[in-house]
Design a protein that fits this description.
With 185 residues, the chain is mainly β. A hairpin with a 5-residue loop joins strand 7 and strand 8.
């Protein structure tokens, strides 16, 4: 309840890339490799910043994972800010994070909680509408799946995509650890 911001870092990781056509269904979409990753999230303003050494390397066979007509990108320093006036799509990394979702849910006036079984696991699903609206004018909904250990296992919402319409965006979380009283995946 008292958490106002969170910063996390890591030596390496992966990040998805823009939607496109994959060259092979078996290889998936291209991804970026991150080194010296750092993210800061201000939970009061739902803003943040990410820095990392970012690259899009080729696979051992010289091909780009997934392809999509994208070329390998050499490692470069990258910084991205999420401002208070950012669009819903730009705020995805903040609002889909466990602390970001919980902050939004705590302030939602019309949140609902339902019980749901997914692949044999029981979840309490907390859902509420957000300010972002679909082209139809109806608000999008964000949902968080709370597992039996009372941890956020998944957060999902939709965004408007010019090509496919309402597109599902979700993040899954596991491996929570305690960091000075704050549990984080």
């Amino acid at each position: 309840d008292q958490l106002k911001s969170i910063e996390y870092t890591g030596p390496s990781g992966f990040e998805g890339t823009a939607m496109g056509q994959a060259q092979s269904a078996a290889r998936g979409w291209p991804h970026f490799t991150l080194k010296n990753f750092s993210r800061f999230i201000d939970l009061n303003t739902l803003t943040g910043q990410q820095t990392a050494l970012r690259s899009r390397p080729a696979e051992p066979d010289g091909q780009l994972a997934g392809g999509g007509g994208l070329a390998p990108v050499p490692e470069t320093q990258n910084a991205a800010a999420i401002n208070a006036n950012a669009t819903w799509t730009q705020k995805m990394d903040v609002v889909l994070s466990p602390p970001g979702f919980l902050k939004l849910a705590a302030s939602a006036m019309d949140a609902t909680a339902t019980q749901r079984n997914v692949n044999g696991k029981k979840y309490t699903v907390v859902s509420f509408p957000v300010e972002q609206k679909a082209p139809s004018g109806l608000p999008y909904t964000i949902s968080g799946y709370i597992d039996s250990d009372n941890m956020v296992a998944k957060v999902e919402t939709k965004v408007d995509d010019n090509l496919v319409g309402d597109m599902l965006v979700e993040q899954s979380y596991s491996g929570y650890k305690d960091f000075a009283g704050v549990k984080f995946p």
